[in-house]
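Practice problem. Given the sequence and the SMILES for guanosine-5'-triphosphate, write out the predicted structure.
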Amino acid sequence: MAIINQATKELQVKVVYYGPALCGKTTNLQKVHAQVEAAPENKGKLVSLATSSDRTLFFDFLPIQAMSIKGFKTKFQLYTVPGQVIYNTTRQLVLRGVDGIVFVADSQYDKMAENVECFSNLLDNLKVLKLNLNDIPYVLQYNKRDMPNAAPVDYMEYLLNNREVQVPSCTACASKCEGVFETLNLITRLLLQKFIAESNRKS
Ligand SMILES: Nc1nc2c(ncn2[C@@H]2O[C@H](COP(=O)(O)OP(=O)(O)OP(=O)(O)O)[C@@H](O)[C@H]2O)c(=O)[nH]1
Ligand SMILES: [Mg+2]
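Answer key:
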């Protein structure tokens, strides 16, 4: 449910980075923030709520201003959920009103079970919110490609990108800022396509 403000001609979109513990969600936002900060027209501040030794306990939030489209100024709000299983209620809270999802998977072989479990947890949490992933644009990021025990991309596609419609995916090494903006571009493109299709249908 993107917020469209006809008066101010603004489109506000909420993107949630979802994935298992320590897969690199917060790192993605930190890298985006570092670039956004360097651009003077952008005043987005990264807010990390309640972290303890680098673990997200509530969520991170980063607002960024994107391009104008069809006369609308688009504002993206990027959120991360806490990956730790005990914070599931918080994950549901952060997912409320989500427009697009980036599922960040950890490429290390020994994290595959956690990736798969987390993806099914995402479906469960959406169901609790009466949402369906079929209606929500989402992309997959295979992060930590630099790790020596990284699983082949094909295998990760087989495990995680196996729904009726395959979605865009990309590899990343978020800590080196590789793949971070590619991922953001993928989800942005899907969301803007949806917005344009919907506004064409209405007009
Ligand atoms: N080697 C490697 N390390 C990474 C990469 N991306 C992130 N990390 C590291 O992984 C650790 C966890 O990253 P975070 O971004 O805090 O993970 P998170 O998904 O936000 O974790 P939670 O908040 O607990 O859910 C940090 O030490 C990062 O520096 C990567 O691509 N490669
Ligand atoms: Mg985090």
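Check your answer against the key. Residues 19, 21-27, 54-56, 80, 82-84, 143-144, 146-147, 173-175 surround guanosine-5'-triphosphate (ligand 1) (CB under 6 Å).
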